[in-house]
């Protein structure tokens, strides 16, 4: 051993001393020497001696409180992979236990990679199987990944991203499941640093900036809490910690849940650790007396531990200065589990193997995953099963009917109710989880059966503070829109006015009775309870008139032609006769001229313009001479609604221009088609144009727009014809 290695070894010993407990020092020293000797001459990308890596992994293993075998295996974890040492030799020199661990870690590392998905699936599966055998393998692998992430800067950029993504998707969730919080958080923070450097730096800056403002205040608060608690509970052992939420935790709230930094209440937390569960609740009571608790932010993970066995009381309160902060209260035992999770099992317990009852319970989920996924099958199938199970991003709960609802982690029963249907959310009065009544801020856990209790009482609706309880954007939006509808009267009035104005502008006119009936019916078809609800939806912008107008127009046209077919009175109020078969609203017996610019035909949507001394000229609504926005046009009062007098059935002349490839017999074919359609042809002329094409203008009588359309369609079928258009004279 050279002097550098000696210094490092002594540091490892110091680390172990700090942990307390007894270690197999000869075994660890032998493993250390063996590691240094066998990696001699190898360098890492950081340009350090290679042994620095297994040495650091071993140090992490020590700080997690793991046993001597694990420490030795950590030191030896890369020798089989990177040198000519065999597992048998490890077994001979260090015993079967260490050899099994080294073999396990080596196997996880050796993967034949086909695709990214495949690779992840494979590594997940192998880790789970390894964990099932001896969970220490995975803890060593996590420590290995942690040190590699700490030194990731030396890697090429693409590799950095790949490793960071795998860390976030595979390793951090496993650390979370095993309850090893410091490893989980550091893995996530390092992953974010490489995956989203800009956001990482932003959060780091925010924390640094706010630190100066708030550190003093939080220190004061901590002192106040300590003084008060020591006065009230003089014989209770307590320990106090201040803590800042992890960067990844803040990142998720800011970028995934789009919260503002200042809206994240648990950025700062004060942790109080004490002896007994009773003390925890006593302390909670004193905290709620000292500070104003924020409603619905209290979580009792002591009575309901998280799936990874985490236990603690969480409450968010506001300081005198108005700064919200979280208080976590737990026992020393709970704290130990919270910090080390499954690794806590080994602390001070030499010689424990991974097969007792305690371990069985904790690793039950691994067996479950392995059983539910076909281990020999398609790897991407497995990755889905496993990811669903490991994902921290989602929880899955079911309705009593068995429908699975997928929600982001932290979602409450409010989110659940609105995820089923807005109507369920709005009518909610309470909820049950697994048959027990839970508060409305109950956080959904995967696998829970959630039953939403509703009322049909009229006037019942969500409460305003549900906006703060809901986590999902969709639930928030639905609650918000409900409150929009709260201002119902104004919305209805606005909606009705908007719709009526728009219909007028589009020359859709009903008489009052018809209008009420029609809108009532239309609203129902649109799945509104009644016309008022429909108007209200228009009023608050939930329904855009432009989107529904084509349907109304279609209905209106159908209704009009049905009325015509049955020879009943048309829908318009009273017959107003006028020339040219046009009725101009509000004006009787006026002179009407069909404008030349757009040559309207019966069936066209039309509008009238009161000319100076020449009567009313009728244009098609889409004529370029009709202003788009009549209200704001130069002379809005001159534009009047007009429609075709539906009883009158006259013929109108219209000119069609037929463009075709010139050929012999073309004009004859056109005339023949006209004859077959029994068309009255008033004029026809044909001329050749450049490029071997010809143009035929034909002036005919048509009864309506529909008639004209059918004529055009027939003419277009003539061989060589490539377009038939109505000519505007
Ligand atoms: Mn390694």
What does this molecule look like?
It is built from 28 helices and 20 strands. The strands form 5 sheets. Strands 1, 2, 3, 4, 5 and 6 form a 6-stranded mixed β-sheet that branches. The protein has a 5-stranded mixed β-sheet with strand order 12-16-14-15-13, with no helix packed on it. Mean pLDDT is 79; it is low at 111-115, 350-356, 372-392 and 567-577. It binds manganese (II) ion. Manganese (II) ion (MN) binds at residues 53, 77-78, 144.
Write the layout of secondary structure elements.
Elements: H1 3-19, H2 25-38, H3 52-63, H4 68-76, H5 79-82, H6 87-94, H7 96-109, H8 116-133, H9 135-150, H10 157-177, H11 181-195, H12 197-232, E1 238-244, H13 247-256, E2 268-274, H14 277-290, E3 292-293, E4 299-300, E5 313-318, E6 324-331, H15 332-340, H16 357-362, H17 364-372, H18 379-390, E7 394-398, E8 404-408, H19 413-420, H20 422-427, E9 428-433, E10 436-438, E11 450-454, H21 466-469, H22 473-486, H23 488-505, H24 512-525, H25 531-539, H26 545-565, E12 582-584, E13 592-594, E14 606-610, E15 616-620, E16 639-644, E17 652-661, H27 666-676, E18 681-689, E19 693-702, H28 705-716, E20 721-726
Parallel strand pairs: 2-6, 13-15
Antiparallel strand pairs: 1-2, 3-5, 4-5, 5-6, 7-8, 9-10, 9-11, 12-16, 14-15, 14-16, 17-19, 17-20, 18-19
The structure holds manganese (II) ion (MN).
């Amino acid at each position: 051993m050279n002097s550098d290695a000696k210094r490092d070894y002594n540091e490892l010993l110091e680390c172990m001393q700090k942990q307390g407990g007894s270690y197999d020092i000869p075994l660890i020293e032998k493993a250390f020497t063996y590691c240094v000797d066998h990696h001699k001459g190898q360098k890492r990308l950081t340009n350090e001696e290679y042994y620095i890596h297994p040495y650091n992994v071993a140090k992490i293993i020590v700080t997690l409180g793991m046993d001597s075998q694990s420490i030795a295996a950590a030191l030896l974890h890369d020798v089989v992979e990177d040198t000519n040492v065999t597992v048998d030799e490890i077994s001979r020199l260090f015993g079967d236990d260490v050899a099994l661990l080294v073999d396990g870690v080596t196997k996880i590392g050796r993967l034949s990679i086909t695709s990214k998905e495949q690779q992840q699936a494979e590594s997940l599966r192998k880790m789970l199987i390894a964990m099932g055998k001896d969970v220490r393998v995975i803890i060593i692998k996590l420590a290995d990944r942690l040190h590699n992430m700490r030194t990731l800067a030396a890697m090429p950029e693409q590799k950095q991203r790949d490793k960071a993504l795998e860390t976030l998707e595979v390793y951090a969730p496993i650390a979370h499941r095993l309850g090893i919080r410091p490893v989980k958080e550091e893995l996530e923070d390092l992953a974010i640093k490489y995956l989203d450097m800009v956001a990482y730096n932003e959060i780091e800056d925010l924390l640094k900036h706010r630190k100066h403002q708030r550190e003093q205040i939080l220190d004061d608060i901590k002192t106040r809490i300590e003084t008060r608690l020591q006065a009230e509970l003089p014989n209770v052992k307590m320990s106090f910690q201040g803590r800042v939420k992890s960067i990844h935790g803040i990142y998720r709230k800011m970028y995934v849940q789009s919260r503002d930094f200042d809206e994240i209440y648990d950025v700062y937390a004060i942790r109080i650790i004490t002896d007994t569960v009773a003390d925890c609740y006593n302390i909670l009571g004193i905290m709620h007396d000292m500070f104003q608790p924020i409603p619905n932010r209290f979580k009792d993970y002591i009575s309901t531990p998280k799936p990874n066995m985490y236990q603690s009381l969480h409450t968010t309160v506001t300081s005198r200065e108005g700064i919200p902060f979280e208080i976590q209260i737990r026992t020393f035992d709970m704290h130990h589990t919270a910090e080390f999770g499954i690794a806590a099992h080994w602390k001070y317990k030499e010689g424990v193997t991974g097969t007792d009852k305690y371990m069985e319970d904790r690793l039950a989920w691994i067996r479950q995953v392995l059983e539910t996924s076909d281990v020999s099958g398609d790897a991407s199938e497995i990755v889905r099963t496993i990811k669903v199970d490991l994902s921290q991003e989602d929880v899955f709960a079911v309705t009593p009917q068995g429908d699975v609802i997928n929600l982001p982690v932290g979602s409450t029963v409010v989110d659940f109710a609105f995820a089923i249907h807005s109507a369920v959310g709005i009518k909610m009065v309470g909820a049950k989880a697994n048959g027990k009544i839970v508060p409305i801020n109950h956080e959904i856990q995967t696998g829970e059966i959630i039953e939403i209790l509703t009322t049909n009482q009229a006037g019942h609706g969500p409460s305003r503070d549900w906006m703060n309880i809901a986590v999902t954007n969709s639930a928030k939006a639905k609650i918000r829109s409900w409150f929009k509808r709260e201002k119902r009267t104004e919305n209805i009035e606005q909606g009705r006015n908007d719709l009526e104005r728009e219909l007028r502008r589009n020359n859709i006119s009903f008489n009052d009775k018809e209008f009420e009936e029609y809108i009532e019916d239309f609203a129902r078809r649109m799945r509104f309870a009644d016309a008022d609800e429909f108007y209200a939806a228009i009023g608050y912008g939930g329904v855009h008139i432009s989107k529904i107008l084509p349907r109304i127009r279609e209905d209106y046209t159908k209704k009009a032609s049905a009325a015509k077919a049955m020879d009943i009175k048309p829908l318009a109020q009273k017959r107003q006769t006028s020339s040219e078969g046009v009725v101009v609203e509000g004006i009787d017996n006026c002179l009407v001229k069909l404008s030349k610019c757009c040559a309207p035909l019966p069936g066209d949507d039309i509008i009238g313009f009161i000319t100076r001394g020449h009567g009313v000229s009728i244009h098609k609504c889409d004529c370029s001479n009709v202003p788009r926005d009549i209200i704001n046009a130069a002379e809005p009062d001159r534009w009047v609604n007009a429609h075709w007098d539906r009883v009158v059935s006259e013929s109108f002349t219209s000119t069609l221009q037929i463009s075709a490839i010139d050929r012999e017999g073309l004009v004859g074919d056109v005339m023949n088609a006209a004859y077959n359609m029994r068309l009255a042809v008033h004029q026809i002329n044909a001329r050749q144009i450049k490029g071997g094409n010809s143009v035929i203008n034909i002036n005919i009588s048509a009864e309506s727009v529909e008639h004209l359309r059918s004529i055009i369609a027939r003419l277009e079928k003539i061989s060589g014809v490539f377009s038939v258009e109505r000519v505007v004279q």
